[in-house]
């Protein structure tokens, strides 16, 4: 079963690093910034998955 896509995770990472200066908590500003950039299909699960992978240096 596929829960997310690599492209979604990459978009989340780009927003966190480039527009939010690496701040990952709380999640709502990340979601709002993604929506501003027309990434409305990215869920909170995608955001949490990207953060977890960034913490483990997998993304």
Topology, element by element:
Elements: H1 6-19, H2 28-36, H3 44-55
Give the end-to-end Cα distance, rounded to a whole number of Å. 20 Å
What order do the helices and strands follow?
HHH
Quantity of strands, as a count = 0
What global shape is seen?
globular
Structural class: mainly alpha
Number of domains: 1
Helix content: 55-70%
What proportion of the residues form beta strands (DSSP E)? under 5%
The overall average pLDDT, rounded, is 92
Report the oligomer. Answer: single chain
Number of helices: 3
- Poorly predicted ranges: none
Structure description:
The chain is an all-alpha fold and 59 residues long. It has one domain (6-55). It contains three helices and no strands. Helix 1 (6-19) crosses helix 3. The radius of gyration is 10 Å and the shape is globular.
In short:
By secondary structure, the chain is mainly alpha-helical. The chain is 59% helix and 0% strand.
Q: What would the keywords be for this entry?
A:
59 residues, mainly alpha, 3 helices, 0% strand, globular
